[in-house]
Each structure stands twice: as structure tokens, then as C-alpha cells.
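Lesson 9: reading folded outputs for more than one chain in a single document. The general rule is that every protein is listed as its sequence immediately followed by its C-alpha cells, and records are never interleaved. Here is the first one.
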Amino acid sequence: MTPDPGGPVPEGVLAALAAEHRGRLMALARDVALPGGTRIFEEGEEADRFWIIRSGTVALDIHMPGRGRVVIETIGAGSLLGWSWLCPPRQWHLAAETRESVRAWEFDAAAVHDLCVEDTALGLSLVTAVAESIGDRLRATRTRLLDLYGPPGAQGSGAAP
């Protein structure tokens, strides 16, 4: 599956890859449509795939004893869904559920890993793009924590408490 050449400009992880690398990765993509309310994966399950969201939103949640599922982030178009496949123990640290109908490209982690071993430049580019995605999410989490727990007047300032 390759993106439509006349379609929208890639964003997120795909935009971070050179056109040649993007094309090789997209050759492994499977177009999926998930209805709203679909549990995509659960905490602790094997992380054997990942997705790039094309449309719709996905809530990432964690189970909290006594409270049930608590949404910690919602992601949308262009976002990478899942990076636990990249590092041992290759188990999901969170769970994911569609908030509405979602279109995504799904990738088999083993096939992508094999491609990265075969083409180390692509592998480095992909790992760098995934790391940037993780960094973006960590910065967003820090901002949310400051909004919740920071001193008065510090909301959204990015200053450390």
C-alpha cells in the first residue's frame, strides 16, 4: 500500500522520512478502517504492530485500580500509534481505543524490523522519527503535569516547578 501521489503531503512520522524510505516503508502498510469504540490493543499484550493514523482520533488509556480506564492522551491524523514494538519486552505499556471511526496504515513490526536490518539508513531514519514522536509526547505530558500541579501562574509556561 502506498500513499496516493496526488494526495495530501505526509505529516508526522512519514514526513520525517526521505521519499525513498517512505516508499519502502509504505510498501509494507496495510490500510485499515476501525469503527469508533474499537479496542486496538491492551496493556501488557504483545506489541507486534504499529499504526500511523490517517483520520479520526485514538485515546490512549491506562488501567487504574479503583478508577478503571483513564485516558492520558488522545492522538489524531499523522500520529504514530505504538512504539512498544521497538524495544524489549515488546509489550504495550498503555491501551488504545478509537474515539470515532479511524483510518490508519497498519505495519507488522517484524516485517518493518527486517526492512530496517536490510536498509540501515532507513532504520536509523525511522528510529529517529519514532524518538522525535516520543519526545513530542513527553513534552506534552510535562506541560499537562505543570497545568495540573505547577505553582499558580505557571500554567502552560513550560517552566519547571
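And here is the second record, again sequence then C-alpha cells.
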Amino acid sequence: MTHIVVMGVTGAGKSTVAQAIAERIGAPFVDADDLHPPANRRKLGAGEPLTDLDREPWLEAVRTRMAEQSRFTSGSGRDPAPETTAGPGLVVACSALRRAYRDILRGVDRPVFFVELRGDRKLLAARLAARGGHFASPQILDSQLATVEPLAPDEHGITCPVSGTVEQVADTVVAALRPDRRR
């Protein structure tokens, strides 16, 4: 089964949407924020944007977790061939802002379907102002908006507006994953 990566800038609702999708399809959920090394968490908490060098080991950790899920669900303890991969993929909440970052995540043995959550700055800033308890500072929003590269037409995935409800976005994603709806 396909891995699903719910991507977007801070405040887009990645974790909430990814959890809803995971519950709907019966797949495990991973929040990539939990895989950040302490140095990244400190930078983000201070409102400092991460560099590509900061992101690389984090993205590799996310990819490793996706590969581990494939080995776990195959029952073989080794990487199965894509055509023999069975069991649920992971649903991952991960910013995956640039195509190069998504390319790292695609380096697993199953297809990866990206769900880009997109919204305007005003809505995202309002969400961040209302959010509490997250390690990342709302100050990183502008740098992430400047960094994000939307999904390209040749990338496997869809774009969903964050103005809809979590249920609407999850329904849209589940419908897009049906074999008869894939592009």
C-alpha cells in the first residue's frame, strides 16, 4: 500500500489532517516533527528557519521510518519488491517544502502520495496565533512560505485547501487514493 505524506507550511494542519486520514484508512501515523533532532527543535523554537543541511538528517530519519514500516508489514524483515509490498503504508505529517525534500522521501520501496495543504498567509497566521504547545515559533511562517515549492504536475499527489474542514480534506484524500481515481 502507498505511503501518504501530508505536507505544507507551519499552521497548515498537517498533523491533524494526517491523523484523520490514518484513522479512516486504518494506517499508522507518524508526525515527522517527533523525528527532528534537538538542534532543529531549538532553532525552530527560536524562530530560525532550518537550512538544507539541518533538514537532511531529519528527512533521512523520516524516510527510514517509512522503510521500516514497509519491512514490518511485509513480515519478511527485509525490503520487499514494490509489487509484493502488502499492508498499510504510513501516513506522515511532514513539511516536505521543496521537491528535493520530497525526492528524499520517495526513496522507499512503495509509492508515496503527497497531500499538499495550501492556504493564504492570513489564515495560516491566525491558526498559529491560536495554537499553543508547539515547539516551532510562528515566526518561521514567512520563511516557509518563501521556501515552499508546490507539487509539480509529475508528482504523485493532490493539493487541498486548508479552508475546508479536516473531514472534507480527509474525504478528498481517501477518494483520490481509490485505484479508479489515481492519475
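What the second record shows: Residues 75-85 have pLDDT under 50 and may be disordered.
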